[in-house]
Each structure stands twice: as structure tokens, then as C-alpha cells.
Amino acid sequence: MDINQLVRKNVQKLTPYQSARRIGGKGNVWLNANEYPIAPHYELSQQTLNRYPEPQPENVIKGYAEYAGVTPEQIIVSRGADEAIELLMRAFCEPGQDSILYCPPTYGMYQVSAETLGIDTKKVPTNKDWQLDLKGIQNNLDQVKLIYVCTPNNPTGNLINHEDLKTLLAIAKDRALVVIDEAYIEFSPQSSVVTWLADYPHLVILRTLSKAFALAGLRCGFTIANKPIIDALQKVIAPYPLAVPVADIAGQALSKEGIKNMQLHVVNMNNQKEKFTKELLQLSVVEQVYPSASNYLCVKFQDGKDVFNSLWNKGIILRDQSKSTGTNNMIRITIGTQAECEAVISALKAIE
């Protein structure tokens, strides 16, 4: 029996998201997944593993609401922001009828989630400066229910202009939800649009503990929106999205001490990023280092393929972004420890 004959046709055609772990590699310097390079230490305080967890853990919801400056009824917690991306599609898009719109180069899961659910996608590439093509978006809004915008954008690292976001919200009014993915916002907190929720009922914001909170392995994300949107998501989310240990550690991370530690992570990371950028710019193999408001750099090399392969063979695992950015020589490099960044610089000097 050919099991593939039973698989949904759209899934048969689907190319899965090529995550850092799926791509693999054998190395000791991992700078390809935008993770914080040092693991935080937590001790489990809850031992009630014989019981199902709360559907929406109260301490986590309250903690994040206080941190984000919103009310608990404006938040739903999920298995990472990746689940939130899909929950919005499940709640608002009719398969085979509605579409989502996104603006590459950007995070690949918007497309993969839509294709998995049988929802059409519309791509409106960003301009040369990686800002929104507002006219292109406006011309492609028919049947669009969700517009995904990542800022700071992955993989480019740039912020999307606030005035453009306001224009986008005006364009989408009474037509679609505008989903602002703020996975990396802690590295540029002044750029958050969370204070806009009162003015834009169709605004949705995605957040995560994976990046600045250094908890990528926890899989804990948040959707922030006005209550009618949250109520719709509550109808389609799994009954127990967060395991007891996940909620336990997430609650600790959102304590005053946990947030203070996260903010220290951000200061250290931004300082390391500035130093790393200066060192990269001194190398002849580097053509350009793009400004970044995140915990990674998008770097254009003279010969990106050679650089990527050379460092890969030395156990330094980076992220080739040539296909997603449309530039053959583009590589994304997560900001690691000082020792890891020095290893990259030394390997690049050897290529020179």
C-alpha cells in the first residue's frame, strides 16, 4: 500500500520549513538559529505532573500582560509564536477561499503554515531597502484575511517604518488583520507597536520567550490583540497548549528578576553585536553588514557560498540566506559569545 496516496494533495506538494535543526550540521559553534548562546538556569517548582495543566496558565498570562503593558484578556499563550501563526489562519481563513499575504524576504513559516492548511498565499516582496511595498500590498488584498509583517525582520534584521505600518493598518481596515511579528522586539523595545492596540481593533502582535529570554527550547509564545480576536483564537487552540514544566519556567522568566536578567542579556548582546559588526567590516571578504535591530546580522560576502562552506567544514554553522533574500552571497549570523564571534572572525581571516 502506498501511504502517500492517502496524504492530502497539498501536503504531498509541501516543502517543510528548513529549520536550523532540520538542516543539521556537525559543529561546535552554532550561529544559525538566532538562539541566545548561554543557557539560563531554572529549577522546577511545580511537581503536579499527574494533572493536566491550566488551559491558559494564570501566572504566565498575568506575568506577560504586566510585562507587555496590556490586560490579561488581550493575551493568549501558545507553543511558541509558530503555533500562533497557524492559530490565526485556523480561526480566520477559509481553506480554498481566503488568502494570507506576506512580504519576503521574511520568516518562512507564514508560507509553510498556510500551505499546510490549504490556504492560498500572496507574496508582495519588500522594496530594495527591505521596506514594505504598500502599493503592491494594496493591489493584492482581494480575499486576504491576514497580513504578516515581521519587525525586526527575519532574516534581514531591519525595522519596518512605523508610518508605513500605520498606512498598512489603514489600508487593511475592515478587510484583514495585520499581524506584526515582534519575536525580536526586546532588542529594539522602543519600536514595539503594542501601544497601538486601542486605536486598531484589527492589529495582532506576536511575541516569544525564545530569543531575548533565552528560552528557545521552552516553546512558549504569545499573541497580543483585542479581546474579540483572542476569543476567536481560544476556540481553535489545543486544550492544554503549555505543559506544566513550561508554564512553571515561563512564570519564573516573567518575574521581576527574570525580566531584569533578560534585559541584561539584551545589553550584552547588543554590545557584542556592535563589536562583531566593526570586526566584520574590516575584512575584505565582507561586502556589506546590514544594520540590525535583532540578535543576528545579515552579511553580504564577496563569495557567500565559499564562506558558508568553509566555515561549515570548520564546525562553524551559519545560515545561508541566499535563496530567501535573492542575493547569492547573503549569510545570516547569530550573535554568539565573544569566543564564538572571534572564531568566526578567525575563520574568515583564514579565507582571506
Q: What sequence of helices (H) and strands (E) makes up the elements? A: HHEHEHEHEHEHEEEHHHEEHEEHEH
Largest sheet: 7 strands, mixed
Q: Give the neighbour order of strands across the main sheet.
A: 2-8-7-6-5-3-4
Helix share of residues? 25-40%
CATH-derived architecture of the largest domain = 3-Layer(aba) Sandwich
Low-confidence segments, given as residue ranges, are: none
CATH superfamily of the largest domain: Type I PLP-dependent aspartate aminotransferase-like (Major domain)
Describe the structure.
- With 352 residues, the protein is α/β, with parallel strands linked by helices.
- The chain folds into two domains: 3-38 and 258-351, Aspartate Aminotransferase, domain 1 (Alpha-Beta Complex); 58-255, Type I PLP-dependent aspartate aminotransferase-like (Major domain) (Aspartate Aminotransferase, domain 2), CATH 3.40.640.10.
- The protein is built from 13 helices and 13 strands.
- The strands form three sheets. It has a seven-stranded mixed β-sheet with strand order 2-8-7-6-5-3-4, sandwiched between helices. A four-stranded antiparallel β-sheet has the order 9-10-13-12.
